TrEMBL record:
Keywords: Hydrolase. This is PaaI family thioesterase. The lineage of its organism: Bacteria, Pseudomonadati, Pseudomonadota, Alphaproteobacteria, Rhodobacterales. It comes from Paracoccus marinaquae. Residues 49-125 form the Thioesterase domain.
Amino acid sequence: MQIVMDAEALNVFLAREFPQVAGSYRVERVDPQSVTARLTVDEANLRPGGTVSGPSMFALADLVVYCAILSRIGPVALAVTTNASIDFMRKPEAGRDLIAECRLLKLGRVLAVAEAMIFSEGGAEPVARCSMTYSIPPKR
């Protein structure tokens, strides 16, 4: 699949269209096989017990899948999640950022299916795995 938006273009798009996430999430890499994004973990992402909250991990997965799709189809702000499943596999480390790696499994005209693996920065084992389906609006 051809890359239409690189990491910098995706970050500019996120800052413009979703300023509420621009400070915490950043696309770090786009290549033909995957997209990588980071959640800068701070106190707002933590829950009791010193771990990153599930909603924070889900938001990172959703963002990296969205960006993987946009990296191939361009800035389509109205592409939306239609299905999601997440497996929380181990406790993320509170003092480390989270890194999500997304692989597009299918990119069609109206649906995209992707998988995201989330890691604590520097960790070898994933802390979560997410499968998502997105609906892509028709071209005008």
